[in-house]
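Lab notebook, design round three. We kept the backbone fixed and only want residue identities now. Task for the bench partner: fill in a sequence for the structure below.
Input structure tokens:
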């Protein structure tokens, strides 16, 4: 059985093709600049050189059609026929309160996703477009939705409700939802396996740090709090998003600069965070390089980000009590040793003893690494995330009729003998 995982963004489509019987990735890639012009596909197959092709994609339907054609192409493809694809798994960023786990997509499910798209206007519309495009290209196979928000539906009411008029929640669903759920699920299960414990016996803080950043407090294996909120704008400092700020600032700046609501929303989402502080960078590699070369605003951006990370670790430790581990993941979490070091140094009083050499050597997206000392009461790990594997296993289990909630379902990566391919 071959499963196609799709992750549709506003101007890109990521994909991964997984051979379930052989338990291996047979191809992956991305179509970039969908809709905006000058589109191209990057196609990677293990053991081959990366293939790139320029091809204009005016919408997601054309982009997915390009992916399918590339997958079955004689020279660069990996399948002989499109019929070899048995199912498709789709990342859906926002499921609201309607979805607590992955589900088979039918007309009712798609309608429900459309009903909450106003909660994630930058993400759900392209997710929906991707589903409809894939269903048109692959109409005879099952399609499954995997929700970013589902993992966090275990949060207690006191954690997810805002101190706002209650009827806002009743009428419009204004509450904390959280995102990056599949990533937090994956790395927390891996951390439990590394610790030699069952997930239900573990308290873990997971730190997903990429362009988007979110943290999760996991108590007895389930999410009890997370940093992103109604939208992915709340929480930590991000590449272009501001994260936590005084809520009076938008109204203040709208008065000072005569910004419209749309303009201030765009500034907070696309021109703030690391970009806002540095004035020119979102990639932390650029920020680190220029900070080391004396750029004061880049140095400041690193200090601000690390300071916020440290505060989240401390606050989540207070929220969940006894802590077994902290996990860093995603691009910056896996590769940015400088940011990791700044965010956990000085936490010895909380039981975290950093091993600087281990931390500085953890610069790969292929290996799970302990970066604290052997006698550190709280362990800190760098664990590369694998959201696509979560997609794949959810799809396979739903098709087999064995899928349940994540505390009952046994993922392959939650086992002690799991080996990352």
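Proposed sequence:
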């Amino acid at each position: 059985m071959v499963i196609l995982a799709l992750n549709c963004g506003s101007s890109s489509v990521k994909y991964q093709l997984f051979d379930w019987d052989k338990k291996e990735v047979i191809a992956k890639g991305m179509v970039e600049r969908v809709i905006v012009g000058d589109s191209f596909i990057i196609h990677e197959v293990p053991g081959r050189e990366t293939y790139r092709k320029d091809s204009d994609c005016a919408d997601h339907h054309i982009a997915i059609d390009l992916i399918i054609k590339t997958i079955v192409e004689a020279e660069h493809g990996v399948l002989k026929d499109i019929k070899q694809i048995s199912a498709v798994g789709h990342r859906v960023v926002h499921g609201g309160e309607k979805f607590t786990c992955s589900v088979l997509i039918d007309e009712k499910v798609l309608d429900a996703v459309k009903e909450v798209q106003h909660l994630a206007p930058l993400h759900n519309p392209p997710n929906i477009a991707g589903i409809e495009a894939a269903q048109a290209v692959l109409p005879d196979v099952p399609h499954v939705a995997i929700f970013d928000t589902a993992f966090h539906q275990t949060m207690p009411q006191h954690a997810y409700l805002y101190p706002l008029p209650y009827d806002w929640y009743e009428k419009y669903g204004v509450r904390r939802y959280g995102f990056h759920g599949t990533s937090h699920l994956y790395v927390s299960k891996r951390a439990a396996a590394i610790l030699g414990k069952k997930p239900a016996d573990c308290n873990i803080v997971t730190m997903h740090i990429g362009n988007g950043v979110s943290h999760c407090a996991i108590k007895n294996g389930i999410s009890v709090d997370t940093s992103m909120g109604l939208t992915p704008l709340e929480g930590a400092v991000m590449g272009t998003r501001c994260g936590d700020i005084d809520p009076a600032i938008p109204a203040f700046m709208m008065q000072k600069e005569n910004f419209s609501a749309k303009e201030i929303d765009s500034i907070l989402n696309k021109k703030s965070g690391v970009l806002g502080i540095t004035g020119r960078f979102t990639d932390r590699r650029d920020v680190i390089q220029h900070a080391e070369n004396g750029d004061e605003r880049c140095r400041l951006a690193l200090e601000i980000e690390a300071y916020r990370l440290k505060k989240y670790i401390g606050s989540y430790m207070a929220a969940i009590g006894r802590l077994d581990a902290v996990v860093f993941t995603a691009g910056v979490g896996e590769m940015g040793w400088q940011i990791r070091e700044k965010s956990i140094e000085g936490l010895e009083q909380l039981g975290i003893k950093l091993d600087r050499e281990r931390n500085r050597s953890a610069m790969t997206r292929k290996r799970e690494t302990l970066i604290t000392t052997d006698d550190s009461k709280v362990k800190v790990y760098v664990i590369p995330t694998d959201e696509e594997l979560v997609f794949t296993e959810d799809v396979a289990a739903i098709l087999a009729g064995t899928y349940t909630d994540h505390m009952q379902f046994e993922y392959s990566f939650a086992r002690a003998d799991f080996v990352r391919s």
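Keep this in mind before ordering anything: Residues 196-385 form a domain with the Nucleotidyltransferase; domain 5 fold (CATH 3.30.420.40).
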